[in-house]
Amino acid sequence: MTPAIFSLSGLELTGEERAFFADAQPAGYILFGRNVENREQLRALTDSLRELHGRDDLLISIDQEGGRVVRMKPPEWDVYPAPGAFADLYAIAPASAIQAIRANSQLLAQDLAEVGITVDYHPVLDIPAQGAHDVIGDRALGRDPMQVAALGRATLDGLACGGVIGCIKHMPGHGRATVDSHKHLPVVEASEAELETDMAPFAKLADAPIAMTAHIRYTAWDTDNPATQSEFVISQIIRKRIGFDGLLMSDDIDMQALDGTIPERSQRAIAAGCDLVLNCWGKMDDMIGTAKVLPAMSDVSRERLDRAMAGAGKVSDDTPRAELLSARNAFLDLAKQQA
């Protein structure tokens, strides 16, 4: 198995993609707007991927946070509030905010499970610092580490109730970045003591099944390499200090924060200790090149993958959608009334 998550070019598998994926056997897939048209089409696409690999628990993922980060959009799917809406509610009624975001996450899971998606890259546990770039912005669950952890836990729980696996991101913390890592490499010069705040929500949720790294260079830990490609950050900070032993994947390896070819970037991430690399652009040459240079997935990484995906498709709470919507909206109305 290739330790990579690859992407697709369109609404259905091409013949070239089908042949390549059957040979490369990637760990999973990520879907984008270019792959999404409607429920029937999307379910057919995910079914074709499962059939290709013969795995019901295949990692088929998407970024569906709510607010400005959504791939499945109206009118086919409901509009979801940005995560920051629940942070606003928490300031007024913490217990209500936790119940609201759990219901919201269960609603998201129902949408995703219906079309065969097993992993949502959600929640964001980054704590925005004053003066940071707004790439996180209202995607954040607040500025207090314990609040972020509480809302993050409720998000993971809500997704799991609907049989979808959540992924905490961007470890060890993206909140201090002053540039967008999609376009530039952020360099964070905060001290180790200051970075304890950034790590705190991740440490509280260190038992999460999946986590994603940050393409950020933290000078307190590694003056040369971003976290995604830093053996020290992954082994000493993420694995040891934070205590995360789940499936660790890179953020999108195509982002301009990193340099070198896509296969070279991928090699460095795996060598540093990532279990998987995430390749989002669906460019066949890049995917073929990456599959050629990466080693087969290690036994440890395969065990982490299997453990992470154990709950995929297992619905533990079948509360009707209308009831979840009513509860979520009633709680969010509290914040509007106080605004």
Could you explain how this protein is built, in words?
There is one protein chain. With 339 residues, the protein is an alpha/beta fold. The protein contains eleven helices and ten strands. It has helices spanning 15-24, 39-53, 84-92, 94-114, 145-161, 192-204, 231-241, 262-272, 284-293, 299-308, 321-338, and strands at 2-7, 26-31, 59-62, 119-120, 165-171, 187-188, 210-213, 217-218, 247-252, 276-278. An eight-stranded parallel β-barrel has the order 1-2-3-4-5-7-9-10, surrounded by five helices. α3 runs antiparallel to α4 (94-114), α3 packs across α11 and α5 (145-161) runs parallel beside α6. It is globular, with a radius of gyration of 19 Å. The N and C termini lie far apart (51 Å).
Strand arrangement in the largest pleated sheet: 1-2-3-4-5-7-9-10
Question: What pattern of helices and strands is seen along the backbone?
Answer: EHEHEHHEHEEHEEHEHEHHH
The coarse overall form would be globular
* Structural classification: alpha/beta
Total DSSP helices: 11
Helix content: 40-55%
Descriptors:
globular, single chain, alpha/beta, 10 strands, two-stranded parallel sheet, about 350 residues
Overview in brief:
The chain has 339 residues and is α/β, with parallel strands linked by helices.
Architecture blueprint of SSEs:
Layout: E1 2-7, H1 15-24, E2 26-31, H2 39-53, E3 59-62, H3 84-92, H4 94-114, E4 119-120, H5 145-161, E5 165-171, E6 187-188, H6 192-204, E7 210-213, E8 217-218, H7 231-241, E9 247-252, H8 262-272, E10 276-278, H9 284-293, H10 299-308, H11 321-338
Parallel strand pairs: 1-2, 1-10, 2-3, 3-4, 4-5, 5-7, 6-8, 7-9, 9-10
Helix pairs in contact: 3-4, 3-11, 4-5, 4-11, 5-6, 8-9
